[in-house]
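Please produce the structure of this protein holding MTE.
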Amino acid sequence: MKLLSKPSWQLPESAVTEEQVFVSRRALVKGLGLALAWPGLSPMQAWAAKFGSELTPSKEELVTSYNNFYEFSTDKGEVRPLAQGVQLGPWELEIGGLVEKPLRLDTQKLAQLFGEEERIYRFRCVEAWAAVVPWRGVGLKKLVEMARPLSGAKYVRFVAHMDPKVMPGLASGHFPWPYSEGLRIDEATHELAFLATGIYGKPLPTQNGAPVRLVVPWKYGFKSIKSIRSIEFTATQPRTLWNDVGPAEYGFYANVNPEVDHPRWSQATEKLLGSWVQRQPTRLFNGYGEQVASLYQGLDLKRNY
Ligand code: MTE
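Below is the modeled complex.
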């Protein structure tokens, strides 16, 4: 008999932040079975009838409408309307720098090449709001391995798409575009680092970073760069848009840490999207310490934040 063990970071589906019920493939199959037993109910209604008490009201609407995507706007409420009807991607991801063989990869082929997975992760923005999001995509490690970085490659730099024709925020002179981010190579090859192409069982909407974005659940959300155009392996720590804009704020690591406040607010607590009144304690590494703390052994996290 094959025993399936759940990875330690896996969250139950009932923890998913959504307005509508998140129907995972498994749930849908269950629902289909129940719908047969209760003709007249849709699979989702049948599933809700059976498992309703476990379900948190869906916040899919919130996660896909309350967005930070500065290339469109710095106003969260404006991003989705501006992105409506704009199709970013598919495109070829450029992978280069210190690799054996630079390559270009069609974003539509990622799932086929590396195998698609669904991951339910906590997400924590530096602004002290949080969510739980079901992503679909591929492990970043697989792509890094395929690129075969040279021994001198110590960091990975990600650069986002820029198209002033459809992204009015790029006209703002406040930011040194393009949006760029970086990870140390051992962070990029950690099991939890993920490239998302979908959300809530659907393709990623433009406002959430289509066609492909990074998801690094133990770091503040700004590290999770959207609409990635290129990935470059480097010997030295790359500069990032936020390190350039706010050098007095968080550094390169930006690991979620309740003890390191933002210069203008505390990070001790957070608000979960959809429950604006109550705050909950922020967890070190956003609750993924068991998996990632070893990456930072010997590093003073209060100084190297
Ligand atoms: N990626 C790009 N290209 N541009 C951005 O402005 N904002 C970041 C990150 N990735 C951003 C980006 C920030 S600050 C956050 S909190 C998350 O995206 C928000 O992701 P979400 O809108 O899907 O919740």
